[in-house]
Protein backbone atom coordinates (compact mmCIF):
# COMPACT_ATOMS: atom_id res chain seq x y z
CA UNK A 1 0.00 0.00 0.00
CA UNK A 2 1.25 3.48 -0.88
CA UNK A 3 0.31 7.06 -0.08
CA UNK A 4 0.58 9.85 -2.65
CA UNK A 5 0.97 13.34 -1.18
CA UNK A 6 0.02 16.37 -3.24
CA UNK A 7 0.26 20.04 -2.38
CA UNK A 8 -2.55 22.39 -3.43
CA UNK A 9 -1.57 26.09 -3.25
CA UNK A 10 -3.81 28.88 -1.97
CA UNK A 11 -4.93 30.10 -5.45
CA UNK A 12 -6.24 26.60 -6.23
CA UNK A 13 -8.79 26.54 -3.41
CA UNK A 14 -11.66 26.55 -5.89
CA UNK A 15 -10.15 23.63 -7.79
CA UNK A 16 -9.82 21.71 -4.54
CA UNK A 17 -13.49 22.20 -3.72
CA UNK A 18 -14.47 20.97 -7.18
CA UNK A 19 -12.23 17.94 -6.72
CA UNK A 20 -13.89 17.15 -3.39
CA UNK A 21 -17.37 17.50 -4.86
CA UNK A 22 -16.53 15.40 -7.93
CA UNK A 23 -14.33 12.88 -6.04
CA UNK A 24 -11.70 13.50 -8.68
CA UNK A 25 -8.22 14.96 -8.98
CA UNK A 26 -6.14 15.84 -12.01
CA UNK A 27 -2.79 17.08 -13.28
CA UNK A 28 -1.73 19.15 -16.27
CA UNK A 29 0.24 17.40 -19.01
CA UNK A 30 3.31 19.56 -18.41
CA UNK A 31 3.40 18.55 -14.75
CA UNK A 32 3.12 14.86 -15.58
CA UNK A 33 5.91 15.13 -18.17
CA UNK A 34 8.53 16.07 -15.57
CA UNK A 35 10.58 14.18 -13.02
CA UNK A 36 9.08 10.72 -13.39
CA UNK A 37 5.58 11.88 -12.42
CA UNK A 38 3.90 9.76 -15.07
CA UNK A 39 5.52 6.65 -13.65
CA UNK A 40 4.38 7.59 -10.15
CA UNK A 41 0.80 8.02 -11.35
CA UNK A 42 0.86 4.73 -13.23
CA UNK A 43 2.06 2.94 -10.09
CA UNK A 44 -0.97 4.02 -8.04
CA UNK A 45 -3.47 1.26 -7.37
CA UNK A 46 -7.06 1.13 -6.08
CA UNK A 47 -6.87 1.06 -2.30
CA UNK A 48 -3.83 3.33 -2.12
CA UNK A 49 -4.25 6.65 -0.32
CA UNK A 50 -4.02 10.17 -1.70
CA UNK A 51 -3.56 13.20 0.57
CA UNK A 52 -4.18 16.74 -0.66
CA UNK A 53 -2.55 19.36 1.54
CA UNK A 54 -3.78 22.92 1.04
CA UNK A 55 -2.20 26.25 1.87
CA UNK A 56 1.02 25.69 3.80
CA UNK A 57 4.07 27.94 4.32
CA UNK A 58 6.61 29.11 1.75
CA UNK A 59 7.96 26.04 -0.05
CA UNK A 60 11.31 27.67 -0.85
CA UNK A 61 12.98 26.42 2.28
CA UNK A 62 15.58 23.74 2.94
CA UNK A 63 14.66 20.07 3.25
CA UNK A 64 12.90 19.47 6.54
CA UNK A 65 11.73 23.07 6.73
CA UNK A 66 8.08 22.06 6.90
CA UNK A 67 8.41 19.65 9.82
CA UNK A 68 6.58 21.98 12.21
CA UNK A 69 4.37 23.62 9.58
CA UNK A 70 0.59 23.90 9.55
CA UNK A 71 -1.74 23.20 6.61
CA UNK A 72 -4.99 25.08 6.38
CA UNK A 73 -6.75 21.95 5.12
CA UNK A 74 -5.99 18.30 4.48
CA UNK A 75 -8.11 16.00 2.35
CA UNK A 76 -7.70 12.26 2.91
CA UNK A 77 -8.89 10.07 0.05
CA UNK A 78 -8.65 6.49 -1.10
CA UNK A 79 -7.96 5.80 -4.75
CA UNK A 80 -10.74 3.85 -6.47
CA UNK A 81 -9.32 3.32 -9.96
CA UNK A 82 -6.26 3.62 -12.16
CA UNK A 83 -5.11 6.94 -13.61
CA UNK A 84 -6.89 7.77 -16.87
CA UNK A 85 -6.88 10.59 -19.41
CA UNK A 86 -9.86 12.80 -20.17
CA UNK A 87 -10.10 16.38 -21.46
CA UNK A 88 -13.74 17.04 -20.54
CA UNK A 89 -14.00 20.39 -18.69
CA UNK A 90 -13.92 20.06 -14.89
CA UNK A 91 -11.77 22.85 -13.48
CA UNK A 92 -12.23 26.44 -14.73
CA UNK A 93 -8.57 27.46 -14.95
CA UNK A 94 -7.34 24.86 -17.42
CA UNK A 95 -7.29 21.29 -18.64
CA UNK A 96 -6.03 18.61 -16.26
CA UNK A 97 -6.13 15.55 -18.51
CA UNK A 98 -4.41 13.05 -16.19
CA UNK A 99 -7.08 12.13 -13.65
CA UNK A 100 -7.79 9.75 -10.84
CA UNK A 101 -11.05 8.86 -9.09
CA UNK A 102 -11.24 9.06 -5.33
CA UNK A 103 -13.34 8.21 -2.34
CA UNK A 104 -13.06 11.21 -0.03
CA UNK A 105 -12.72 9.85 3.49
CA UNK A 106 -11.94 12.87 5.65
CA UNK A 107 -11.32 16.62 5.57
CA UNK A 108 -9.37 18.12 8.45
CA UNK A 109 -8.66 21.79 9.13
CA UNK A 110 -5.42 23.09 10.61
CA UNK A 111 -3.37 19.91 10.29
CA UNK A 112 0.17 20.15 11.64
CA UNK A 113 3.40 18.29 11.06
CA UNK A 114 2.97 16.71 14.46
CA UNK A 115 -0.08 14.87 13.10
CA UNK A 116 1.25 13.90 9.68
CA UNK A 117 4.89 13.30 10.56
CA UNK A 118 8.08 14.81 9.22
CA UNK A 119 8.30 12.54 6.16
CA UNK A 120 4.81 13.41 4.97
CA UNK A 121 5.37 17.14 5.46
CA UNK A 122 8.61 16.89 3.49
CA UNK A 123 6.75 15.08 0.71
CA UNK A 124 4.20 17.90 0.59
CA UNK A 125 7.00 20.48 0.46
CA UNK A 126 8.55 18.64 -2.48
CA UNK A 127 5.16 18.47 -4.21
CA UNK A 128 4.77 22.23 -3.77
CA UNK A 129 8.08 22.71 -5.58
CA UNK A 130 6.97 20.36 -8.37
CA UNK A 131 3.71 22.16 -9.29
CA UNK A 132 1.56 19.74 -7.34
CA UNK A 133 3.08 16.53 -8.67
CA UNK A 134 2.44 13.53 -6.39
CA UNK A 135 5.25 12.43 -4.09
CA UNK A 136 4.96 8.78 -3.21
CA UNK A 137 5.50 7.16 0.17
CA UNK A 138 5.25 3.48 0.95
CA UNK A 139 2.85 2.60 3.72
CA UNK A 140 0.24 4.80 5.36
CA UNK A 141 1.92 6.45 8.32
CA UNK A 142 0.45 9.85 7.44
CA UNK A 143 -3.09 8.42 7.25
CA UNK A 144 -2.56 6.72 10.61
CA UNK A 145 -1.66 10.11 12.08
CA UNK A 146 -4.93 11.59 10.81
CA UNK A 147 -6.90 8.64 12.20
CA UNK A 148 -5.33 9.14 15.60
CA UNK A 149 -6.26 12.83 15.53
CA UNK A 150 -9.84 12.11 14.42
CA UNK A 151 -10.19 9.44 17.09
CA UNK A 152 -9.02 11.88 19.73
CA UNK A 153 -11.55 14.45 18.52
CA UNK A 154 -14.27 11.85 18.91
CA UNK A 155 -13.11 10.98 22.41
CA UNK A 156 -12.95 14.65 23.39
CA UNK A 157 -16.55 15.09 22.25
CA UNK A 158 -17.69 11.99 24.17
CA UNK A 159 -19.40 10.65 21.08
CA UNK A 160 -21.26 7.37 21.31
CA UNK A 161 -21.15 5.20 18.21
CA UNK A 162 -24.27 3.04 17.97
CA UNK A 163 -23.89 2.32 14.25
CA UNK A 164 -20.21 1.55 13.79
CA UNK A 165 -20.70 -1.27 11.33
CA UNK A 166 -23.52 0.14 9.24
CA UNK A 167 -21.78 1.88 6.35
CA UNK A 168 -18.79 -0.06 5.08
CA UNK A 169 -19.49 0.68 1.41
CA UNK A 170 -16.22 2.28 0.33
CA UNK A 171 -15.25 1.67 -3.29
CA UNK A 172 -12.08 -0.36 -3.62
CA UNK A 173 -10.40 -2.41 -0.93
CA UNK A 174 -11.97 -2.22 2.51
CA UNK A 175 -9.14 -1.84 4.99
CA UNK A 176 -9.02 -0.91 8.62
CA UNK A 177 -8.02 2.72 8.08
CA UNK A 178 -10.85 3.47 5.68
CA UNK A 179 -13.36 1.72 7.96
CA UNK A 180 -12.13 3.73 10.94
CA UNK A 181 -12.61 7.07 9.17
CA UNK A 182 -16.08 6.08 7.96
CA UNK A 183 -17.07 5.10 11.50
CA UNK A 184 -15.83 8.40 12.90
CA UNK A 185 -17.85 10.20 10.23
CA UNK A 186 -20.92 8.32 11.41
CA UNK A 187 -20.24 9.24 15.01
CA UNK A 188 -20.02 12.94 14.21
CA UNK A 189 -23.13 12.88 12.06
CA UNK A 190 -25.09 11.16 14.82
CA UNK A 191 -23.88 13.62 17.42
CA UNK A 192 -24.71 16.63 15.24
CA UNK A 193 -28.15 15.32 14.29
CA UNK A 194 -29.34 13.82 17.57
CA UNK A 195 -27.00 15.04 20.27
CA UNK A 196 -26.74 12.81 23.33
CA UNK A 197 -30.40 11.96 23.74
CA UNK A 198 -31.01 8.60 25.35
CA UNK A 199 -34.28 8.15 23.44
CA UNK A 200 -34.81 8.93 19.76
CA UNK A 201 -37.85 9.01 17.52
CA UNK A 202 -37.87 6.83 14.43
CA UNK A 203 -38.63 9.00 11.39
CA UNK A 204 -40.72 6.25 9.78
CA UNK A 205 -42.86 4.56 12.43
CA UNK A 206 -42.74 7.50 14.83
CA UNK A 207 -41.93 5.42 17.92
CA UNK A 208 -39.72 6.95 20.60
CA UNK A 209 -37.17 4.28 21.46
CA UNK A 210 -33.89 3.78 23.30
CA UNK A 211 -31.17 5.45 21.22
CA UNK A 212 -29.27 2.22 20.75
CA UNK A 213 -32.05 0.75 18.58
CA UNK A 214 -32.36 3.76 16.27
CA UNK A 215 -29.79 3.85 13.48
CA UNK A 216 -28.31 6.96 11.89
CA UNK A 217 -29.47 6.28 8.33
CA UNK A 218 -28.60 8.03 5.09
CA UNK A 219 -31.69 8.69 2.99
CA UNK A 220 -29.66 8.67 -0.23
CA UNK A 221 -27.35 5.67 -0.03
CA UNK A 222 -23.96 6.71 1.26
CA UNK A 223 -22.03 4.98 -1.53
CA UNK A 224 -23.90 7.08 -4.09
CA UNK A 225 -23.38 10.40 -2.27
CA UNK A 226 -20.84 13.08 -2.96
CA UNK A 227 -18.68 14.00 0.00
CA UNK A 228 -20.92 16.99 0.81
CA UNK A 229 -24.08 14.91 0.52
CA UNK A 230 -22.68 12.33 2.93
CA UNK A 231 -22.27 15.02 5.58
CA UNK A 232 -25.50 16.90 4.91
CA UNK A 233 -27.68 16.54 7.99
CA UNK A 234 -30.75 16.81 5.74
CA UNK A 235 -29.68 13.45 4.31
CA UNK A 236 -29.80 11.81 7.75
CA UNK A 237 -32.78 10.35 9.56
CA UNK A 238 -33.41 8.05 12.49
CA UNK A 239 -34.58 4.58 11.45
CA UNK A 240 -35.32 1.94 14.05
CA UNK A 241 -34.12 -1.65 13.94
CA UNK A 242 -37.66 -2.90 14.61
CA UNK A 243 -38.16 -3.07 10.85
CA UNK A 244 -38.13 0.49 9.52
CA UNK A 245 -34.40 0.58 8.83
CA UNK A 246 -34.27 -2.54 6.67
CA UNK A 247 -37.61 -1.92 4.91
CA UNK A 248 -36.46 1.53 3.81
CA UNK A 249 -32.92 0.47 3.00
CA UNK A 250 -34.12 -2.24 0.63
CA UNK A 251 -36.81 -0.06 -0.91
CA UNK A 252 -39.91 -1.88 0.35
CA UNK A 253 -40.95 1.45 1.85
CA UNK A 254 -40.36 4.88 0.32
CA UNK A 255 -41.51 8.45 0.93
CA UNK A 256 -43.59 10.11 -1.77
CA UNK A 257 -43.33 13.71 -2.96
CA UNK A 258 -45.74 14.85 -0.26
CA UNK A 259 -43.79 13.23 2.55
CA UNK A 260 -46.09 10.23 3.01
CA UNK A 261 -44.64 6.78 3.68
CA UNK A 262 -45.65 4.40 0.88
CA UNK A 263 -45.26 0.66 0.35
CA UNK A 264 -44.16 -0.86 -2.94
CA UNK A 265 -46.34 -3.34 -4.77
CA UNK A 266 -43.72 -6.04 -4.26
CA UNK A 267 -43.85 -5.61 -0.48
CA UNK A 268 -47.66 -5.58 -0.35
CA UNK A 269 -47.81 -8.76 -2.43
CA UNK A 270 -45.40 -10.62 -0.17
CA UNK A 271 -47.22 -12.50 2.63
CA UNK A 272 -44.42 -11.85 5.10
CA UNK A 273 -43.88 -8.18 4.28
CA UNK A 274 -47.46 -7.05 3.68
CA UNK A 275 -48.32 -6.64 7.36
CA UNK A 276 -45.21 -4.69 8.45
CA UNK A 277 -45.30 -2.30 5.47
CA UNK A 278 -49.05 -1.74 5.78
CA UNK A 279 -48.57 -0.70 9.43
CA UNK A 280 -46.23 2.09 8.32
CA UNK A 281 -47.79 3.12 5.01
CA UNK A 282 -49.89 6.27 4.97
CA UNK A 283 -48.07 7.97 7.85
CA UNK A 284 -46.09 11.19 7.37
CA UNK A 285 -42.32 10.75 7.43
CA UNK A 286 -40.94 12.88 10.25
CA UNK A 287 -37.67 13.57 8.39
CA UNK A 288 -39.34 14.93 5.25
CA UNK A 289 -39.00 18.65 4.55
CA UNK A 290 -37.76 20.98 1.81
CA UNK A 291 -34.13 20.24 2.55
CA UNK A 292 -34.52 16.45 2.50
CA UNK A 293 -37.03 16.13 -0.35
CA UNK A 294 -34.40 15.64 -3.07
CA UNK A 295 -32.78 12.83 -1.09
CA UNK A 296 -36.12 11.06 -0.71
CA UNK A 297 -36.71 11.57 -4.45
CA UNK A 298 -33.40 9.85 -5.18
CA UNK A 299 -34.43 6.94 -2.96
CA UNK A 300 -37.78 6.64 -4.80
CA UNK A 301 -36.10 6.65 -8.21
CA UNK A 302 -33.10 4.42 -7.51
CA UNK A 303 -34.08 2.12 -4.65
CA UNK A 304 -37.86 1.84 -4.34
CA UNK A 305 -38.43 1.41 -8.06
CA UNK A 306 -35.84 -1.35 -8.08
CA UNK A 307 -37.69 -3.09 -5.28
CA UNK A 308 -40.96 -2.95 -7.19
UniProtKB/TrEMBL annotation:
<protein>
    <recommendedName>
        <fullName>HNH endonuclease</fullName>
    </recommendedName>
</protein>
